[in-house]
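Data deposition worksheet. Section B asks for the primary sequence of the deposited chain exactly as it was used as input, without tags or linkers unless they were present during the calculation. Section C holds the resulting structure in token form. Section D is free text for depositor observations; keep each observation to a single sentence. Incomplete worksheets are returned to the depositor.
Section A, Depositor: J.P.
Section B:
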Amino acid sequence: MAKKILPRLFYTRKAWMHKTKKIIKRYLKDDGQQNIKTSGIIHNPLFDLSKLDKLSNGNPFFVPKMVQVFIDELPPTLSRLTMHSLRNEIPRVKAVAHVMKPSIRMMGIESAIPLVEQIEDFSERKIHLEQIPELVKELVTVCNNTIKQLTICQNKQLFNRNI
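Section C:
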């Protein structure tokens, strides 16, 4: 009997991901009627949870739990990165950026990946050190906007579903 359920679960999960992407785009779209206002107007989601979904192996609680962990853990990490950047503590900037990289990749924040890689690379090679604070500022902005979008989707219970 389990063999009959698994293909149905997989189909349902694929259909859910497709539906969720459509809903997220609809709610985050600037069409004047269902515009969700945050610090700015959001036209497209900054995240893509498809990697996270593949990793879940059909566990319906995995994606919402990982989104919540990301929302909870990223702000203190961003604060540490900013603090170390402003204090010019380059080895610590490199260490924090290195720790952030897998989470950013897993959440599919494509616009943040080059920023965190550049911060880590500049810190490691000790080049363009004057650019690091500006890169960190840009990374913090992208990550904070992503957290806002994830929180909006979470509040609308787009990550919770019945399978």
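Section D:
The mean pLDDT is 80.
The first helix runs from residue 2 to 28.
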